[in-house]
Amino acid sequence: MATQELDIVKLFQEFGTDEACRDYLEHLRWPYGVECPKCGGKSISTITTRKQLDCNACRHRFSVTTGTIFHDSHLPLPKWFAAVYLLCEAKKGMSALQLKRTLGVAQKTAWYLCHRIRAAMVDDSGEQLSGVVEADETYIGGKLRPGTYKTARQAKQHRLDNKTTVLGAIERGGKLRVRVAPDADQETVHGFLAEHVADDAEAIYTDSHRSYRGIADDNTRHEYVNHSADEWVRGNVHTNTVESAWSLFDRAVIGSYHKVSKKHLPAYLQEFEFRFNNRDNPYLFRDTLLRLIASDNLTYKELTA
Questions:
Q1: How many CA atoms lie within 13 A of 28 on its CB side?
Q2: d(Cα 64, Cα 15) in Å, to the nearest integer?
Q3: Stronger pLDDT, 218 or 144, i.e. the higher one
C-alpha cells in the first residue's frame, strides 16, 4: 500500500472507501497479524456484516478502530484520511473553516477533527539539539487598540500585555523546538535551553537579549548579534534560521487561522513543530496515522473545558 509520494488523486484512489481505509488501518495496527486487544489472541474470525472481528479464544468482539481515536467518531474514514492528508501537506496549516468547505462537514465537526489530529501530531522523541543551535523568542497575540494608552511611552511599556511568550531553538539542518513560556526572563530561557540543547552542542547563537547571557559553558560557546545596532549577521553568527521558522508560523496564524486563542496556542505550536521536523519525511501521512491509532482520545468536553 503506497504511502510515499502521495498526492490528493492517489489518496482518493487508494482510500476512497471505508473498506480500503479499514484494511490500511489494520495493516498499520497489526503488521504481523490481527491480535485481540483484550487477551492478545491471534485466532480471529471476521464478522463481515458488522465490520467487526471476533476473538476465538475469549470471544471478545472488536474492530480495527476499537481503542483508537477513530472509535467514537461518526465521520466516514475516507474523510478522516483526507483531513489527515490535508493537515500534513498544508505547510502553513489549515483552518477549520477551510476543512469544513473541503470535506463538506459542519464547522463544529471540522474544528473538533482538526484538534484531534493536531493532538496526535507530537514530536515526542526527546532528541536534544546539537551542533550549531539558534535560539530566539517571539510574542504571539493581537496589537493594542489605538488610544488604549494616553502616551507612546505607556503603550511601549504595555506592548506585551496581550501577547503570549514563545521560546524557540533550532539545530541548523535539524529539528525545531518551540514552547509557550510564562515569560522570557533569564531563568525561564536558561531552563528551556537546558532541556532542549545537548550539553555537547558546539554553539548557541542568539540576539542580544539579556536573558541569553551566561548560557555558555566549557563545551558550548555563546555568540550573539546586536539587532538594535543593525547587526544581523557576523560571519557564521546569525538567527536567520529560527526567525524564518517564526515567520512561517506567523503566516500560518495570519493567513490560515486568522487568530489563535491563548488556550489552544500550545496545540498549534505542537502541530507546527511536528510538521516542520517532518518536512523531509516521505512517510508523514503514514506516520501521522500511526500516531492517531496509538493516541488517547481527546473528547469534545475536554477540549472545550
A1: 23
A2: 15
A3: 218
Percent of the chain at pLDDT exceeding 70: 93
Among 117, 121, 125, which Cα is nearest to 298's? 117
- Its sign, for the CA torsion 193, 198, 204, 210, is positive
pTM: 0.88
Cβ-contact 92, 268 below 8 angstroms: no
Look up cell 491471534; give the residue. Answer: 42
- How far is it, in rounded angstroms, from Cα 272 to Cα 31? 29
Q: SS3 of 65, please? A: coil
254-267 pLDDT per residue, tens: 888 888 888 999 99
φ, ψ dihedrals at 123, nearest 5°: -90, 90
CA–CA dist 8, 86 (Å, integer): 9
Lowest mean per-residue pLDDT among 9-13, 27-31, 71-75, 211-215? 71-75
Given a cut of 70, whether residue 160 has pLDDT beyond it is no
The Cα 110–Cα 97 span in angstroms is 7
Give me 44's grid cell: 480471529
The pairing of strands 52-55 and 44-47 is antiparallel
Q: And the C-alpha cell for 197?
A: 540543547
Query: Which grid coordinates are listed for 40?
Result: 492478545
Angstrom distances, CA of residue 100 to CA of 87, 108, 253: 13, 9, 18
Q: How far is the C-alpha of 223 from the C-alpha of 215, rounded, in Å?
A: 10
Q: Per 3-state DSSP, what percentage of the chain is helix, strand, and coil (rounded to 5)?
A: 40, 15, 45
Q: Is the pLDDT of residue 56 over 90?
A: yes
d(CA 243, CA 168): 9
H or E element that contains 155: helix 152-157
Residues facing 258 on adjacent strands: none
Contact 169/242 with Cβ under 8 angstroms? Answer: yes
